[in-house]
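Notes from the pairing session

We agreed to fold both candidates in a single pass and log them together. This is the raw record for the first candidate, unedited. Please don't reformat it; downstream parsing expects exactly this layout.

Candidate A
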Amino acid sequence: MVADLMTAPAVCVRPGTGVKDIALDLAEHDITAVPVVDDLGHPLGVISEADLMAIQAARPDPAGHLSAAHLPPGERARARATTAAELMTSPAVVARPQWSVVEAARTMARHHVKRLPVVDDAEQVVGVVSRSDLLRVFLRADSMIRQEITTEILTRTLRQDPDAVSVDVTDGRVRLSGAVDPGAVIPVAVRLCESVDGVVGVENDLYARSGAEADTEAGDRAGARADTGRRP
């Protein structure tokens, strides 16, 4: 989830913060962007290194190769910015702590941004998630991926017998094999596994458990209970 990957707390600036102070914040905290927030911590916009570079780019070229007049109108307007409110890109595109990595990545791609302020239920900024943060999921240990699939997906969500299904994970590639009941859960299991953070692919070798297999297992369990009841 985004909550596990985001940088928190977020370094934020106010609308009246000066351009030089913004640059100092980026350098001091070794970050590439800051959200601009109001008095209640609600996001108003985002300022990135690219926004600050626009100010530099719009200045007269000492070598005379390019003048500010040849820059797009929007870039020339940014050259006159002196505060965060004048420089920020607004409105801010935000994420939620409970979002999946896929949801955050698609939002970044759709809006052509490299980072998202993360807001809570009160719409207050609680962190920032970047593209590099999202890429960290590929470093997730195979053992952690296997445990989540076995415990959360197969056992708790799909109510399957963990001893009947084998989950093998190698470099983020998951292989599911074994019997499930009913067979309709097979495509659901595959989709859920594909959504797990760190999974890069799923190989499906699951099959539906036959009635005979289910009856045999039920009989074995009943026999085991009967044997237990006869013990002194």
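Candidate B (folded immediately after A)
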Amino acid sequence: MDIENSVIVITGASSGIGAATARAAAQAGARVVLAARREERIKELAGELSGSIAVRCDVTKQEQIDALVQTALHEFGRIDVLINNAGQGLQSTTEQIDLEDFRSVLELNLVAPLAMMQAVIPAMRQQHLGAIINISSGTTFADVPGTGGYVATKIALERLSAIARNELDGTGITVSTMIPFATSTEFLVSIRAGRAEAEAMTAGAQFDTPEQVADAILQLIKSGEPTMDLVPAAYGGSR
């Protein structure tokens, strides 16, 4: 899909990968719908990006998802791309995972992307064109102690993406998965539980920049390939 003049909805757009992708997409000529809970941040970003709008949205709230999609359609008349980027980490061994923490992360990392997909697919069907990019994690490439709860949500998202892609074959809608490696964002600051453990686990790691991931996301939109990963070959990835 061409990026220029497309309408791209990005969740979790207030910082990190989401904000970097918004900037890259706008620079490539897209009209961007910035969605996040932190309204002040996305309004400030929208002020920097020509042709973009900011819509406060908690993607765990169906009514806010519906309002986001309706606003995008009212403003631009179409939605060409959805980037399901909003998410949260969780670090804890399996026997110690707090079930409420797990339910919260499951809701944000898996249920919310599904709800977003369901909300945009009807408009994409009418257009006979659309691209959905679900953001997973390079942690799915290894069985690292303490990552089970988080990885479970991301593995499930990857399978959901692959099956949705097959279901939508022939409609003009592609569903793809982006798998970043460790990226310099607010991820560790906003982790649901186990921040100290996660920081210790990633100590000394070489982090990608959000801009590197953003560029890869735009490449994936253009190619329509099923997956793309930024995981080094030493960890089982393709880079």
